[in-house]
Here is the input.
Amino acid sequence: MLEIKDLHASVDGTPILKGISLTIGDGEVHAIMGPNGSGKSTLSNVLAGREDYTITKGSITYKGKDLTELAIEERASAGIFLAFQYPTEIPGVTTMTFLKTAVNAQRKVRGEEELNAVTFLKLVRQKAKELKVDEDMLKRPLNVGFSGGEKKRAETLQMSLLEPSLAVLDETDSGLDIDALKIVADGVNRLRAPDRSMIVITHYQRLLDYIVPDHVHVLAKGRIIRSGGKELAKELEASGYTDLTESAA
Amino acid sequence: MSDQALTYLDANGVAAVGPAWLDVRRKAARASFADAGFPHRRVEAWRYTDLSRLIAKTDWQPAMPHAGAVLVPEGRSNPFAAITSHKLVFVNGFFRPDLSELEGLPAGVEILPLEAALESGTKFETAFDANGPEAVAPIAALNTACAKDGAVIRLGEGVALDQPVQLIHYTPDGGATASHTRNVIELGAGASMTLLEAQIGWGGAYLVDRLTNLTLGEGASLTHVRIEDEDAQAVHIATVLGDVAAEASYVAGTLAIGGRAGRLQTALRFTGEDAHAESNTAYLLRDQQQLDSTIIADHAVPGCTSGALAKGVLDGEATGVFQGKVIVAPHAQKSDAKQMSNALLLSRDAAMNAKPELEIYADDVQCAHGSTIGELDGDALFYLRSRGIDEQTARRMLISAFLGGVLEQIPHEEARDLLSERAAGWFESRSGGEA
Here is the structure.
């Protein structure tokens, strides 16, 4: 699915990622953990194609193609989805209009027929119900005035509608209480499939109790300093990042 | 004394025709304009719109009636055509009975061209008396001295006109010609109507000056929806000048997309308590277009509310101007006035000038004003694109969302939808495709 080799990236000339290599197979869920400032969000933004980030070295191969050559929207249509840590508020664009525009934009690029209003509404209602997103929320401007939980549920709803091949969940647990976390995690778990891989980025182990990863990587100072199975998350929970980052240094 | 003004008046002023009372006023207006001259940038209220310079170097001659059929270019037709209305059509500033629809007017409703109204002996001296505040006075004088035609609309007490009235102005001919139009709208106590106005031109370099005198009686209500879509070489001025009596209401919504340079100026004075006036303006400019939206609310009496909202999208080397002025008289307590200007700059070479002015002499009032000038939100663009929406569509979505805030204030639903479509058409017609 995804192969990252010796990836170096910088923001405004400051190097943030300093040689990341990571291979993610079909259907695998990889957790990337690390302290603040370790480069977790930079990695997710680089994968999504944000223009403020410059790749200075290394490669990203997605489904056998050079991902870095694709524009932001081309990556999305190719199946990459970034669930934002802080979803952007967009006044004046209703959530429903946005969802329909996004779904049909991707269908069009893939040569599929665009969904008509009725079919789309049916689909959204069904998915929204599963995520406890009420109709009122869909009529409101995108993410405007949404609570933390509502924003993350809206992100998960987008993911379930767009059906990506590779989902990158950037600190999906931030700002969520335990009930909201369960709803979002259930939504994510329903989307696990043999042809869908996920990168779950988190600071805390808590999320990984609900979205159980196949592999766990620890990111510190722009490098992966340790990789292991799901038990590595537990170990981190007990020992904290300090031990690890110091022993690696 | 201004030579530029004198030369202009000699060519374009109206000679002694019509009733004696009008002739007296024309002469006074002529003298006043000759003295003041075309407003220029050293006049504070015209600082950003140097009309003297804009019309200089042209030997302006009066527009002539257009012979024959009016062939409106594709995409420039009257956007309100589908709305069943009473209709007055003017071409090059002259009334065209063959294109107008004035049959079946209900009792208590008078809608006719200015010339016919003058011949009928109807008195409306007062409409030619007031020149309004300093900011609009020179143009009011120019208009009085030069206006040949226009519309007169009068509703009797308590008359609620169901069908809107359309005032459609086409300017198919240019060649350095000028037209001056005077509209007089008087609504009796409790009367109400909707005015749909379209100002559309494609004749090249021309000058249009349209002034509408409003008199709203107690409890009267006027809804005014406008589109300004003049030729890309034209200079246009549209003035609304009037008095709003107790409990009366004036609500305006304007979409401006045309012209080389334009000024929309509205000056309203409250003459009775609990009246309301608001102007909502959306403007979309590109290339070297400039548009000046100047709104003056004179709270001469207590308890009135006024609002001015202008939102502009500026591309290329376009320039937007917002001037809002609120005057609250010493005894005009409980006045409530709001002014807001928002501009979205799509290019580095676009510019915006916003100038709010408050002259408040009462203490128990609410006056709010604000101004924002910004560009498209990069985070929002990234978010939309990260969902597969291409950059151009994403930009349009954000621009439409920005404009939605003012277009949704347009008070007539059908007209609002039609103008929103026109605004959307502006994007389609953009060359270069950056956005």
Q: What stands out?
A: Residues 20-36 of chain B form the longest helix (17 residues). Confidence is low (pLDDT under 50) at residues 431-435 of chain B. The CA atoms of residues 158 and 191 of chain B lie 4 Å apart.
